[in-house]
Amino acid sequence: MSLQRFISEAISPWMKEIGDESEIVLSSRIRLARNLKQFKFPLLASTEESHAIVQHVAQALKEEPIDEVKELELLMMDDLKRNEKRVLVEKHLISPNLAEQSKYGAVLLNQDESVSIMLNEEDHLRIQCLFPGFQLLEGLETASKVDDWIESHLTYAFDEKHGYLTSCPTNVGTGLRASVMMHLPALAMTQQLNRILPAINQLGLVVRGIYGEGSEALGNLFQISNQLTLGKSEKDIVEDLRGVVLQLIHQEKSAREYLLDQSILQLEDRVYRSYGILANSRIIESKEATQRLSDVRLGIDLGLIKGISGNILNELMILTQPGFLQQFAGDVLTADQRDERRATLIRERLMLEKEQSDE
């Protein structure tokens, strides 16, 4: 494995698989926050201590890897260029916080990029397991196995009363963040999201954009996750989230049926217009590209557009981000240059899909 492989492919190997309800739920993630008993938490640790934490964890996890992990590659943030870190953020392999913080940060990645262990982010370890589609229970099972494996080699900071101890009080307890990435274009088109999203927040869940806290919800993509980690078991947290996601899936499907039944002409016009713009534009900004890609993905899912893989949304949503565009260019690009390259990349990708479907 190498850094180049992690940053050269937009689609991680796990993303190429098909999961349950994948037309609406693009991915499921389980993240566990953990700290080591014998070290100061990252916010208080010195650079030397942070370095010692990385070496301690990396050395311990070389022994007896489990099937869910197999081989792990260690990437040090200080060894990466700014844009290389940006690409890893765009692939959701590391957080913006890890990419930006200056202390001795690192990430351990497995071969198919489904397991990511961030070191010295807000906590000593942020264990992340990613699955395609709606697979929260499978994600929890895998994350628990990885967590148990790590705990067999390292000693966590744990309190019998409060549970796992973390830098942020909102993570104390289970340290669990379960989330799904959902594509909800029909609910947006039928203007139901303004009613639904506030209701979700009242249930103890939080709705964010594609890159988590502080990010904008582009392309009708929403990350929905639990907010509370204390006072509930891991399974209860995941089951609560699953119940809400199942309701959202039902409502999105109903909204799609409504559009097909009541507004088919307007729907077709929107989908084909977006496809035409993507297939022919010479300049396109990121925000417009994500919205047009959302329309095209909806058209694919509803059978209005033939011969194009639904994975094209996942792929192009990442490929057209600033980090990837500049990685392929091998240089820093201005905003105008990125808009031009984004349009070219999308045109060529759609043309390739068409050629393959005609064969």
Automatic annotation (TrEMBL):
Which Gene Ontology BP terms does the record give? Answer: phosphocreatine biosynthetic process
Short sequence motif RDXXRA motif of the pArg binding pocket involved in allosteric regulation: positions = 338-343
The catalytic activity of this protein is classed by the Enzyme Commission as 2.7.14.1
Gene Ontology MF annotations = ATP binding; creatine kinase activity; protein arginine kinase activity
PROSITE patterns in the record = PHOSPHAGEN_KINASE (PS00112), PHOSPHAGEN_KINASE_C (PS51510)
Q: How is its activity regulated?
A: Appears to be allosterically activated by the binding of pArg-containing polypeptides to the pArg-binding pocket localized in the C-terminal domain of McsB.
Annotated Phosphagen kinase C-terminal domain residues: 24-255
Provide GO CC annotations from the record.
Answer: extracellular space
**SUPFAM superfamilies linked:** Glutamine synthetase/guanido kinase
Q: Name the reaction it catalyses.
A: L-arginyl-[protein] + ATP = N(omega)-phospho-L-arginyl-[protein] + ADP + H(+)
Coiled coil start-end: none
Binding of ATP, residues: 27-31, 92, 126, 177-181, 208-213
Superkingdom in the source lineage: Bacteria
Per UniProt, the keywords (alphabetical) are:
Allosteric enzyme, ATP-binding, Kinase, Nucleotide-binding, Transferase
Could you say which protein family the record assigns here? Belongs to the ATP:guanido phosphotransferase family.
**NCBIfam families xrefs:** PRK01059.1-4, PRK01059.1-5
Q: Quote the function comment for this protein.
A: Catalyzes the specific phosphorylation of arginine residues in a large number of proteins. Is part of the bacterial stress response system. Protein arginine phosphorylation has a physiologically important role and is involved in the regulation of many critical cellular processes, such as protein homeostasis, motility, competence, and stringent and stress responses, by regulating gene expression and protein activity.
Indicate what this protein is called per its UniProt record.
Protein-arginine kinase
Q: Which organism is it from?
A: Alkalihalobacillus trypoxylicola
Which gene codes for it?
mcsB
